[in-house]
Amino acid sequence: MAAAAETKSQESSLQSEESRQESGESRMRSPGPMASWESDLASIQHSLKFVMKLREEFICPICKGVVLNPQQNSCGHIYCFHCLQRLLEISSPSSPVCPVDRAVITPAEVFQDNCCKREISTLEVYCTNSPACTSVVTLNQLQEHLGLCQYEQLQCTNTGCKEVLQRRHLEKHLTSSCPRRRELCPHCRQSLHLHLLQDHLQSSCPEVEEECPDGCFHKVLRHQLMEHRESCPKVHTDCSYKKFGCSVQGEREKVKLHEESAVSRHMLLVLSSNIHLEKQVEVLQEEALMRQEEAQTDCLTLTGLQKEIQSLLQESSNYKHTISTAQRTLSRQEDVLSSVKLGVQQVSRGLGSGRDELEQLKKSLDAVMQDVLAAEALREHIVSLEENLKHHSGLLDLHAAQLSLNKQHLQELEVTSFDGRLIWKIQDFRKKRETEAKGQPPCLSSVPFHTGRCGYKMAIKAYLNGDGEGRGTHLSLYVVLMPGDFDALLPWPFRQTVSLSVLDQSGARNHQSLSFRPEPTNKCFQQPVAEAVSNVAVGFPCFIPLNTLETPRNAVFVKDDTLFVKAKVETAGLDQL
Questions:
Q1: What is the C-alpha separation between 154 and 133, in angstroms, rounded?
Q2: Helices (runs of H) and strands (runs of E) counted in the chain
Q3: Cα 114 versus chain centre, distance
Q4: Which class is domain 421-569?
Q5: Phi-psi category of 160—alpha, beta or left, where left has phi over 0 and alpha has psi -120 to 50?
Q6: Would you call 564 helix, strand, or coil by DSSP?
Q7: Verdict on whether the full-model pTM lies above 0.85
Q8: Where do the structural domains in the chain lie, given as residue ranges?
Q9: Is the Cα torsion angle 9, 14, 15, 21 positive or negative in sign?
């Protein structure tokens, strides 16, 4: 009986101990974090070298390193907080034991030994970079020392560089020897990786000076090469009187001398060209007069057709009134006929003396039938009149469409350019831009212009609120090839250089210009299909930022709410038909 009671008492004490362990383990697993210097030393605690030999009680019996954040058990031994936590996690709740004396660890009796922690924190230790670094510091200051130690191994902070070197050499490496360091371009001051700087200087830096590629020996900033080419004395160009018939070509300076020495010849060419133009103007004026006469004739015809249609409509209205009257009469006659039939039936049943009345009723019936036939004929005539009205309405629409085409053709003849240049005046700029931003219309198109009397036909397209990647931020300008009357005689694909400009209205001539040379393989420069309106437009979706356009520094692009856009097609080497 005593043994049984003792056993029952032991079981009760074990259950109580298990409950205390569970509650204590719960507290062990949710303590406050280590001090920052202890958590930073966790990765190097086994490689630390102490000035004095480390006392046995300061060595964790689990990890064999210096104790960090010491926790003391009821048996008197101390452990690292994380070491003890792992030991409790891998052991069953009833069997965690001290690895030194195998005493049972009761989590509820474990506590943080702050006295031991203070002693450990003041232990002197050599720098982990010894013997290169001879510094001796206390353990709680080691991490702070390593943050300043000149012998600490660090990785280069430049992106892409994997070099590891001591802190004392890092600054020099970052500023002078790292192949991945960033340096400023000495010309445009743009920050670039060192391995990209040479390519930038050789090919893309806009502020690098280059010798003129046309051989005038001038050095020009790269971004001003295109502008320099407009005045370079070595550029091959045509005489400015080429459009009047002068065929001289060569370097600009020689062509300039030619222009100064051949003034009289050029004046004769201009005079001959003016005579030819006057004849063409006379022909155009005659053609315009003919068009006006045709338009007047069409207007007279249209007026006559309108009057004829009005009379037909009036006649149709009269016929409809007549038919309505006939229908009402027919309805009354049908009522009379019904009454007559009833009367005939009564007469047939009655006396034979009513034969005369019956004859009169028959005559009335015949008259009603004739009225019905007349009404049917009248209805057929009205249907014929309605078909005639539809025919005349169709003729009227055809005449109106032809008149509109004649007016449009006359307007194009008055403003058409034949020298490959066009200056397009866009008025009400802001209103049109706001309208375009709302989606109506999507873009503006200029009148067509030509590279010669029998040359290519082209037009400018402008998106005042931007197109594609420039929508809402840039002005977009394009040029489009259109089907022309002489396309079958012209060389294809189109190969002439095209320049687009936004003109400065301040008088300083600081125009904004961009050019492109067609790619022969691009479908946009092939011969336009006759059935199509035009080819796909080609140009610059980001021609000029809208804020630069409206508030430029040294130019005035929008004045009196008006913008001027210029297109110029290089006609050098283009034979005139």
A1: 15
A2: 13, 23
A3: 66
A4: mainly beta
A5: left
A6: strand
A7: no
A8: 17-146, 291-415, 421-569
A9: positive
